[in-house]
Amino acid sequence: MALQRFWNNIQVPILSKNLIEQRIISSSLNDEVVQDALDTFDAYSKLHNDTNGSASTRSSATQELQSTSQRIRGRTKQSNSAYTYVKSRGPGLTVNDYFFEHQRVSGYTKGTPILSQSAGIQRLSDSLMTEVETYLQLLGGRASSLSPLIQNGIISLDLWAAIQKGQGAYHKDHVHEGVILSGVYYAKTPTGCAPLVLHKPILHPDGSFGYTRRENLESNTRKLQSSESDDVIIMNPKEGQVIIFPPWLLHGVPNVETDSDESNFQEPRVSFAFNLSGAYAGGDPWNFTQESIIYFEDD
Question: For residue 287, what pLDDT is reported?
Fold first, then answer.
């Protein structure tokens, strides 16, 4: 197995593999984790949208949502967050953004009872960890030496569910700071659902990263697909596909636009995002994947 390396003058290591097609995950297990994710999302949505509650309950929920919104927006400038949004001109926060924040502050799966008690989620997490170790071995160098830390539980996988449905169900461009690597497993991908968009990085003289991301293309699938630029890579995932990539790679889920009233457009897109993270004396976690980048001089 080889890593995919996109763009011409910079090669970024990305692992893409279909776990269902390769019989690593069964269709029945995939269906099980999809239902667990939907049940968790429904329970969360009901908690914050119960119109039958008392006035005080509704007021408390409103205050909590406002506080959550401030936390999400505030993370734009925080360098110690494992999940940092990039400022954009796109639409506002989505229900899925709030759902993610709920999972993050609650300890990811630990704070969502349905997911934390799911045997299927645990089996999925175990399979994803195996793919993470494969990715680290393929990177080589210091990255391949992390396996003992994984096996001893010093660094581990943080996993959370993401549910997007219908028009406007996009996800802002962001990076995952303070972690070693990031990835996403696609459990349900109805026809016409949004892709994963990866933005080409640029290395600045001081060693920091910038991006060729263009504001007018963000959160708009049609504009992205019609662009002739190689600034972005559009990945249309299939059910069972896992994609693992460096945490500093800017990525997002653009808004889907359609002219049709196809019923499958209202089907939810269900994925499980994850980070490999943990406190250890290993320096900057981003270095493990930065060391594997290959640069070429422009022609």
Answer: 80
Please give, one letter per residue, the 3-state secondary structure of the chain.
Answer: CCCEEECCCEEEEEEEEECCCCCCCCHHHHHHHHHHHHHHHHHHHHHHCCCCCCHHHHHHHHHHHHHHHHHHHHHHHCCCCCCEECCCCCCCCCHHHHHHHHHHHCCHHHHCHHHHCCHHHHHHHHHHHHHHHHHHHHHCHHHHHHHHHHHCCCCEEEEEEEEECCCCCCEEEEECCCCCEEEEEEEECCCCCCCEEEECEEECCCCCEEECCCHHHCCCHHHHHHCCCCCEEEECCCCCEEEEECCCCCEEECCCCCCCCCHHHHCCEEEEEEEEECCCCCCCCCHHHHCCCEECCCC
For the chain, list the domains and their CATH numbers: 4-294 (2.60.120)
Classify residue 255 as left (phi > 0), alpha (psi -120 to 50) or beta: beta
Average pLDDT on 10-33 reads 94
Query: Which pLDDT score, from 0 to 100, does residue 35 have?
Result: 96
Cβ atoms 193, 270 nearer than 8 A: no
Task: Give pTM, 2 decimals.
Answer: 0.83
Check residues 93 and 126 and name the one with the higher pLDDT: 126
Give the tokens for residue 294. 């290959």
Q: Which of 25-39, 224-238, 277-291 has the lowest mean pLDDT?
A: 224-238
- Is the pLDDT assigned to residue 67 strictly greater than 90? no
